[in-house]
Amino acid sequence: EAFPVPTVAVCVGNVVGAGAELAAGCDLRVGGDNLKLGWVGARLGVPVGVARLVPLVGEAVAKELIFTGRVLDADGADALGLLTRRAPAAEAEAAALALASEVAANSPDGLRRLKAIFREFGGSEERVARENSGLEAWQRHGAGLPQG
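Above: the chain's sequence. Below: its structure in token form.
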């Protein structure tokens, strides 16, 4: 979220847990037809996903996805508006690069200003900082991830 210009994620295969968080933190996402996208932290007791997912799909849908750990295929992710574009898995990176080229053809200063406005209006900096603080406390003082 903090990167000063628009970012594009290539989402192919299993994009779960931290991968889903990384994808959600990007401004635009290109999904391959083999996509499996999910916020599965609840399965391990990891308190993460809310800050980035709620603004993308709304609170009710985010709750269902995070509480259940349900994994979306490309159709499901697309239906929820999580994907900017779709492509066959083997062509997803090229599609993402084409999208990035479209974005990069615009004014660099204008893109930086627009990105800052989106961050400000969306409140992402505060939301993410709060979630990260809770996650760090959980890692330091909670049960932590299962071992073994």
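The CA atoms of residues 38 and 71 lie 4 Å apart.
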